[in-house]
Q: What sequence folds into this?
C-alpha cells in the first residue's frame, strides 16, 4: 500500500444551533471586522445570526449568483476592501462559498463558512469562477475555510427538489472519489461513509423536511464529499458537469443528477473494485443501475432533454470535455463520451461501457 495523506486543515462545528456559535468562532480566529456574503433573500433567514455578531459585522454582500460569475466575486472583493474587513463569512452553498474563496485567495481574510446548501466546497482547495462561459478552476490551500459550521436547522427550508439535486452533487463527489486515479484508502472511507449518510438522509429529508437527523446526514455527507474531492480530485463526471454548466447553462445540482449514472456506467468495466464498493454500500446489484434507481426514488431530473439541452449541442459538449485534464480510470474517447451524452440526453437506464 503506497499513498500520501494530508489531513484537511479546517475546523468543523456540527450540530443544532451551531450557527449561533459564529461570533465565538470569529473571535477565536482573531476576526474584528466581518463581512457576510450570501445570496439575495438569505438575510431574512439569518437575522438571528446577524444580530448575534453585534458590532463585529461591518457589511453584508447579498449578490451571490450560480456558478460564481467573476463580476460578482470581484464586486464582493471590492466591498470587502472598501469596508476594511478582515473576516469573510460565506453563508450558503457552492456559489456563495465561491465568493469567500475569491476573497480568501486575494487577501489575508479569515474565512468561515456556514453551510446551508451542502456540497463540500468549504473544505476543498478548488476555487472557481465563471469567466465568460467558461468555469475556470484552480487549486490553492488558502481557499479552504478555516472553520465550517453545519447547523441542520438552517437546511430545513430547502425544497425537496434542491435537497435532492444538491444531494446528488454530494453523492457524485463521493462516488467519483472511489474510482478517481489518485484516490487512497482514507478517501475510500470518507466516500463510503458519505454515500451511506446521503442515501439515507436525502429521502428522509424529502419525506420530512424538519427531521434534523435526516438533515444532519445530508450535511455530514456533503462535508465528507468535500473531503473526497480534496483527497481524490474529480474525474469525468464533474468535468462534464462543469462543461454543461459553463457552456450550456445547466445548474450544477441538475447536471449532477442526470449525469452521475452514466459517468459511472462509463467507468463500470474500467474500475471494478470501485464498482463493488458502490454496490455493497448502496445495496444494489449494479453500480450505475443502483444510482439510476436512487435518482428516480428521490425524483431528480432524468435526462439532459428534460433540462432543456438541444441534441445538436451534444457533439460540442463531447469535444469540450476532451480538452480537460483527467483523473479518470477509463481513457476518454470522443465516440464513447458522445455515447455517454446520448444516453444522458435520453434518460434511459444506463448501459455499461
Ligand atoms: Fe460538484
A:
Amino acid at each position: 500500500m503506497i499513498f500520501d495523506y494530508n489531513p484537511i486543515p479546517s475546523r468543523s462545528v456540527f450540530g443544532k444551533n451551531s450557527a449561533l456559535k459564529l461570533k465565538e468562532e470569529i473571535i477565536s480566529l482573531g476576526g474584528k471586522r466581518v463581512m457576510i456574503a450570501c445570496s439575495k433573500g438569505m438575510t431574512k433567514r439569518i437575522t438571528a445570526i446577524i444580530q448575534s455578531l453585534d458590532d463585529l459585522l461591518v457589511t453584508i454582500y447579498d449578490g451571490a449568483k450560480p456558478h460564481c460569475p467573476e463580476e460578482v466575486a470581484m464586486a464582493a472583493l471590492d466591498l470587502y476592501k472598501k469596508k476594511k474587513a478582515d473576516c469573510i463569512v460565506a453563508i450558503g452553498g457552492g456559489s456563495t462559498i465561491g465568493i469567500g474563496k475569491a476573497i480568501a485567495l486575494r487577501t489575508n481574510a479569515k474565512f468561515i463558512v456556514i453551510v446551508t446548501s451542502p456540497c463540500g466546497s468549504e473544505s476543498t482547495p478548488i476555487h472557481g469562477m465563471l469567466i465568460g462561459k467558461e468555469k475556470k478552476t484552480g487549486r490553492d490551500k488558502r481557499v479552504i475555510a478555516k472553520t465550517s459550521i453545519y447547523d441542520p436547522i438552517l437546511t430545513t427550508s430547502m425544497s425537496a427538489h434542491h435537497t435532492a439535486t444538491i444531494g446528488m452533487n454530494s453523492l457524485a463527489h463521493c462516488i467519483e472519489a472511489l474510482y478517481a486515479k489518485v484516490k487512497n484508502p482514507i478517501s475510500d472511507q470518507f466516500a463510503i461513509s458519505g454515500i451511506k449518510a446521503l442515501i439515507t438522509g436525502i429521502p428522509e429529508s424529502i419525506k420530512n423536511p424538519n427531521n434534523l437527523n435526516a438533515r444532519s446526514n445530508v450535511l455530514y455527507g456533503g462535508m465528507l464529499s468535500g473531503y473526497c474531492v480534496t483527497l481524490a480530485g474529480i474525474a469525468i463526471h464533474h468535468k462534464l458537469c462543469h462543461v454543461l454548466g459553463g457552456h450550456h447553462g445547466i445548474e450544477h445540482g441538475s447536471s449532477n443528477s442526470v449525469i452521475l449514472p452514466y459517468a459511472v456506467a462509463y467507468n463500470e468495466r474500467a474500475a471494478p473494485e470501485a464498482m463493488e464498493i458502490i454496490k455493497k454500500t448502496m445495496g444494489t446489484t449494479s453500480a450505475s443501475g443502483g444510482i439510476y434507481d436512487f435518482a428516480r426514488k428521490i425524483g431528480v431530473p432524468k435526462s439532459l432533454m428534460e433540462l432543456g439541452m438541444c441534441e445538436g449541442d451534444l457533439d460540442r459538449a463531447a469535444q469540450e470535455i476532451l480538452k480537460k485534464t483527467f483523473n479518470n480510470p477509463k481513457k476518454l474517447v470522443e465516440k464513447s463520451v458522445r455515447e455517454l451524452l446520448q444516453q444522458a440526453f435520453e434518460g434511459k437506464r444506463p448501459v455499461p461501457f
User: Anything to note?
Assistant: The first strand starts at residue 11 and ends at 14. Residues 11-155 form a domain with the Rossmann fold fold (CATH 3.40.50.1970).
